[in-house]
Design goal:
CATH superfamily of the largest domain: Dihydrodipicolinate Reductase, domain 2
Low-confidence stretches: none
CATH architecture of the largest domain: 2-Layer Sandwich
Shape: globular
CATH class of the largest domain: Alpha Beta
Mean pLDDT: 93
Order of helices and strands: EHEHEHEHEHEHEHEEEEEEEHHE
Number of strands: 15
Radius of gyration: 20 Å
CATH topology of the largest domain: Dihydrodipicolinate Reductase, domain 2
Distance between the termini: 30 Å
Number of domains: 2
Strand content: 25-35%
Strand order of the largest sheet: 14-13-12-11-7-10-9-8-15
Bound molecules: nicotinamide-adenine-dinucleotide
Structural class: alpha/beta
Length: about 350
């Protein structure tokens, strides 16, 4: 049984607790939040025995094996480092952290303490995305030529908490949602980024953080992909990935111009593919984390992979400021996992 503590009880903590409640071998045994009322609500709703006011108290609990760091972006680094030092495995929400130095320290401390570090990049666990990956991996569409991943939506400015409207605190559309776009694109390109050329800025909202970003990402496998994340005042929503291969096309959508789901294009026509699995992304995410701990292998969307995604996002910010293509300075080898375990399509790259 993996005994979990959830730190931070905002909106998305519900999805984590609900997802974990669907698993037999993972259990939330404690929560931490500065607000007493939230702690009480969560403990009552999900039958959680212990509640702490601060993460420090929760991390001192010897009955906790792993934690979910589920709060504001500017706190991900500090809490992850503290949790690793306390000997807990960590699943930290996206975006991993707000600077490269922070990501590096998180990876280094997890490695030093021998604990697993995973970043909650939920796209890897969505049944729709997984079905699409299966189709790509089957080879029936031939090799990938290029891909475009969009997310455009309302930002919900009046309700958006201040931390998400300030880049200093790790906010803005690019880090908040662009991270999903860059992650899904990179995962489907199954390669590592070499360089980025981007435009990031403000067009719709007066806030101390961007509200749009578009990045052309060049990958080691020689291909280029486009990541677009826009928060508009008004428009038609997109949450679509289009992949063009040599013998067919693939579309994954949430229901913008065409019905939501996975579509395959062949013979100049599109056909919708059935997705039978309806399990929760968050249950699958925790299941994968549990497997990684139990088998002592890297989780999919590991700290090293999450770091690479942040490297692309930060390089895009630099490119937007300098008007130049930015080369990524580092990155691990992409043929093997650190544990030596055979990589599967769940991992960020092969
Ligand atoms: N994976 C996804 O699809 C997805 C979706 C939504 C949000 N998120 C991410 O989840 C994270 C949390 O987002 P949210 O909007 O639910 O958070 P939030 O800001 O609404 O909630 C944070 C909670 O943490 C508590 N808190 C702050 N400091 C604390 C401390 N030191 N110790 C204990 N508690 C503390 C606050 O009281 C608050 O209740 C963010 O990183 C966000 O980007 C991910």
């Amino acid at each position: 049984m993996l005994r979990v503590g959830i730190i931070g009880l905002g909106g998305i903590a519900n999805s984590h607790c609900r997802g974990i409640s669907q698993l037999d071998h993972v259990k939330v045994v404690a929560v931490a939040d500065l607000m007493e009322e939230r702690r009480r609500e969560f403990m009552a709703q999900y039958d959680i025995p212990k509640g702490y006011a601060t993460h420090t108290e929760l991390l001192a609990d010897p009955e906790i094996d792993a934690v979910g760091v589920v709060l504001g972006h500017m706190l991900h680094h500090r809490l992850t480092v503290d949790a690793c030092r306390a000997g807990k495995h960590v699943l930290v929400e996206k975006p991993m952290a707000i600077s490269m130095e922070q990501c590096d320290e998180m990876v280094a401390v997890a490695r030093e303490k021998g604990v697993k570090l995973m970043v909650g990049l939920t796209n890897h666990f969505s049944p729709t995305n997984r079905r699409a990956r299966e189709i790509l991996d089957s080879g029936e569409l031939g090799p990938v030529i290029t891909a475009v991943n969009y997310m455009s939506k309302r930002w919900g400015y009046p309700r958006r908490r201040a931390q998400y409207r300030s880049r200093y605190h790790g906010g803005g559309m690019w880090l908040t949602n662009g991270v999903h776009v860059v992650d899904r694109l990179t995962w489907f390109m199954a390669s590592q980024a070499l360089s980025v050329s981007a435009a990031i800025g403000n067009r719709s909202y007066y806030q101390a953080a961007d509200d749009y970003g578009s990045a052309m990402i060049r990958y080691k496998n020689g291909q280029v992909g486009l990541a677009v994340a826009v928060a508009y005042k008004d428009g038609g929503p997109n949450h679509d990935l289009n992949i063009i291969c040599s013998e067919g096309s693939l579309h994954i959508g949430r229901g913008g111009l065409v019905e939501a789901g996975v579509w395959v294009g062949k013979g100049d026509k599109w056909e919708r593919v059935a997705v039978e699995d309806e399990s929760s992304n968050f249950a699958r995410e925790w299941e994968a984390f549990h497997t990684a701990i139990e088998r002592n292998i890297e989780p999919p969307s590991s700290g090293v992979y999450g770091r690479h995604i942040m490297e692309i996002l930060f390089a895009a910010e630099e490119s937007a400021l300098t008007n130049q293509e930015v080369r990524l300075s580092s990155g691990p080898g992409w043929f093997s996992q650190e544990s030596g375990e055979v990589a599967t399509y769940e991992h960020g790259w092969y």
